[in-house]
Amino acid sequence: LQKELLKYKQEARNLQGIKITSPQDALQQRLIQQDAAVLQLKQELLRANMDKEELHNQNVDLQRKVEERNRLLAEYKKELCQKDRHLQQHQTKLDEMLRQLSEASYQQVDLERELEHKEALLAHCMKREAEE
Asked: What does UniProt give as GO cellular component (predicted)?
């Protein structure tokens, strides 16, 4: 009966995909599984380290680009300040010229009035001389 029971147990295990192994075979099977798991973890660690290195390189590249853009921005700001100073200087010169032009215009108006007044005096003198 025991032999038959053992036989049926063997068949049941075979049907379920479980084979009877010695303790050494089971231990070796377990070591193989652990080695496979360790290998898989090492591969995942390697991938993670490669991803980390790639991200680090991207970060360095982005920092370099940011520094370059900051340098360009500083140059543009410097140029803008210089152009603002030049513009302010030209505005000051323009204001001075407009003031001088305004003064010249007032002087021209005064000279034209004086000329008209003298022409009127001359005409009056000529008329008086013609009457005399």
From this structure: cytosol
Rounded CA-CA distance 73/65 in Å is 12
**1: buried, middle or exposed (CB in 10 Å: 19+, 13-18, 0-12)?**
exposed
Whole-Å CA distances, 116 to 59, 104, 106, 120, 127? 83, 18, 15, 6, 16
Domain that holds residue 114: 1-131
pLDDT tens digits, 42-84:
999 999 999 999 999 999 999 999 999 999 999 999 999 999 9
User: Any idea what DSSP says for residue 22?
Assistant: -
* Structural domain count, the chain: 1
Distance between CA atoms of residues 125 and 119, nearest Å: 10
The reported pTM is 0.49
Helix (H) or strand (E) holding 16: helix 2-16
- What count of residues does the chain have? 132
User: How does 66-97 read in b/e, with b if 16+ C-beta sit within 10 Å?
Assistant: eeeeeeeeeeeeeeeeeeeeeeeeeeeeeeee
